[in-house]
Design goal:
With 132 residues, this protein is mainly beta. It has one domain (17-118): predicted glycosyltransferase like domains (Thrombin, subunit H, Beta Barrel). The protein has 1 helix and 6 strands, in the order E-E-E-E-E-E-H. It has one helix spanning 108-118; strands at residues 21-31, 37-45, 49-53, 63-70, 75-87, 98-105. The chain has a 6-stranded antiparallel β-barrel. Strand 2 and strand 3 form a beta hairpin. The radius of gyration is 15 Å and the shape is globular. Residues 1-16 have low confidence and may be disordered.
Length: 132
């Protein structure tokens, strides 16, 4: 597969593959190294990651453990994740402080169940306008 650079310097391989879905669901997200609570609300979710409301001080690369209940599947999901982005809430459209996490691994059966449940939800709107 050939990779081409975008106007922001990223490549196709860095682009989001799984569609984000708007959710407001309770969760328990803890930092792995000290088990401190990082978040108790998922703001948006995909089969590869999540955006969590958080005012905790975390760093990109921090290892997390995230548990959330998906009502469509009536099951709990427990995933190991890595902080990919820290939203400080200073930019127009941020909507407050948040943490973007990427799921490290999820069993294929669980991933398919989550994808099916999320397909019934409204896609998340972009939080910021694209700069041209």
């Amino acid at each position: 597969m050939q990779h081409s650079a975008s106007s922001h310097g990223s490549t196709e391989s860095n682009r989001r593959v799984a569609a984000r879905r708007t959710v407001r669901m309770p969760c328990e997200a803890v930092r792995e190294r000290d088990f401190s609570m990082v978040s108790n609300v998922v703001l948006d979710l995909s089969s590869t990651g999540a955006l969590l409301r958080s005012s905790a001080k975390v760093l990109t690369g921090d290892a997390m453990i995230l548990s959330f209940f998906e009502p469509e599947t009536s099951r709990w999901f427990d995933v190991e994740a890595t902080v990919a982005r820290v939203v400080h809430g200073r930019r127009l459209g941020d909507g407050g402080r948040a943490v973007g996490v990427h799921f490290n691994a999820m069993p294929a059966q669980e991933k398919r169940a989550l994808e099916k449940a999320l397909s019934k939800r409204v896609p998340a709107l972009p939080r910021r306008r694209k700069v041209s």
